[in-house]
Description:
A hairpin with a 2-residue loop joins strand 2 and strand 3. 18% of the residues lie in helices and 35% in strands. The two termini are 15 Å apart. By secondary structure, the chain is of the alpha/beta class.
Amino acid sequence: VPAEGARHANGARGIGSLIVAVRELDVATARYTGLLGRDSSAAGGTANVEHARGVGYSIGSHRVEVVAPTEDGPMRDLLNRRGDSVYELRLISTQDETLDPRHAANARIRLVTA
C-alpha cells in the first residue's frame, strides 16, 4: 500500500508497520524469515514497541515487527488470551494518536507521523 494510497478524515494515509506479538522470539524469527524470504534486521531493534524485544522486516516501505514482551502488560495479556497474533497496526498519518479501541473493533491502531 503506497503511503499516498488512501486518505481518511483522521489523517491516516497508509500502512506504516504491523506489530506481531509472539511468545518465543527465536522460533518466530525463523518462521518469519522463511515466510518473508528475507533476513531480519538487527536483532533487538523494534519500532518503538515499549516493553518488548524483537526483530523487524522491511517490505517495501512497510515494516513487520515481530516482538516478544519483556514484562507483564497488555502484550503479554494478549498472548495469554490468543497466542501469537497481531498486536498493533501503525498507520502513517499527519498526527500521532492512539485510536480508542472501542471505535476500532477492539483493534490497537496507532497513527504515527512518518
